[in-house]
Amino acid sequence: TEGVKGITLQLGGNMDISIKCDSLKAIYSVKNGMLRCAAPYEFTISLMPMIKVCIEEVGNRIITFTCEEEIEAKKLYSLLQELERLLQIFDGVFLDLEAIEIYGRESTNSYNALVEHFKIQRLHYFSSANFISIFSDRLLKYEDILSSELFDKWRILLDELGVVNQMYLYATSSAGFTNDVKCAFLVELSESLMEIIQSEDIKLQRYPNENGKLKPCLRTIINCCGKTLFRNEIEFDLEKILSCLVNTRVNIMHIKINQRKPALDGRESVLYAIKMSYLYRLVILEKLEINAILYEDNLIKRVGYIDGWNGIQEQLFNRLEQFL
Question: Looking at residues 94-101, what average pLDDT do you find?
Answer without folding.
Answer: 93
